[in-house]
Amino acid sequence: MDEQQVEVESVGEDGEMDGAIKGILRAAAGEGTTEAEVVDEEGEAPVDEGDGKEIQEDDNPANTRKWSSVWVHYRKLGQEPRALCLLCMEKIQHRSSTSNLIRHLQHKHPNEFAQLEDHPQKRPNKRKSEDPSRLASSPTLASGTPTRAHIVSPKRDVRTPCSTSLDRYSGAKWSEGVRILERERELTEALRRVQQEEGRSIQLQKELLQQFREMDAERRVLQNQKCEQEQEHARLRKEKEDFQREKNELLREKDELQKEREELQKEKEELEKQKQELDSWKTSHAQGQASGFYNC
């Protein structure tokens, strides 16, 4: 029995604190030694942990700590001084104050924090999740009045080896679940990053395709302009050739006319020469006839 008390004192500091506060309140009320202390001194068998805590909370509601509604979004990680955020699966440093938890909600989850301020949550009733068979078998809950066998002091809150192993097993499963959730969150983040990269690559492909289309349109415009320029150049070259051919023909005609003019000039000179010869012959012939007439 003493070994169990030593083990409980090393584990449950909160239980000792609650027991001390309860003793002070009862001493101030003049109750003296309670039945729970008598049971503790007589060394009677301890009862179930959950029933004892519920009876203590029902006997003196003022001894219970004020429950913060921020725990709706958090869960404790066993003996670790940290709490797991159920919204983003991030581990937050936590000891006795909830300031870090509230600060995390304000910065990372402002909507949930606003909902907590607008609609404060009530502390969940632990007895609602209890096993109905356990509730039915509890004489304290069945009769409505606690008995000596079920009233224990906080120092008698002893955990059995079976409950300890179950707690360890549930803690291991919880840690495994946390690791799985963290792994799923990492995979989700990796998938989101891959999807973002794919979206950026698709957007880049669209931009490159648009640029290629614009460049192709410009190339077609330039090609059309080049074709038009080539056609214009061919037309101008043809016109130039025609003009050159006409020029050559005009030059040839000019040469021919020049030749004809020269020939006509020669003929004119010959005619002038013949005319002069004829005139000289006429003159000489006339003189000869006149002299012959006079001779006769």
Automatic annotation (TrEMBL):
The lineage of its organism: Eukaryota, Metazoa, Chordata, Craniata, Vertebrata. Keywords: Metal-binding, Zinc, Zinc-finger. Residues 65-116 form the BED-type domain. Residues 37-49 have a biased composition (Acidic residues). PROSITE patterns: ZF_BED. It comes from the Eukaryota. The keyword Nucleus does not apply. GO terms for molecular function: DNA binding; zinc ion binding. SUPFAM superfamilies: beta-beta-alpha zinc fingers. Residues 31-64, 112-148, 227-296 are annotated as: Disordered. This is Reticulocyte-binding 2-like protein. InterPro entries: Znf_BED, Znf_C2H2_sf. Residues 135-146, 283-296 have a biased composition (Polar residues). Pfam families: zf-BED.
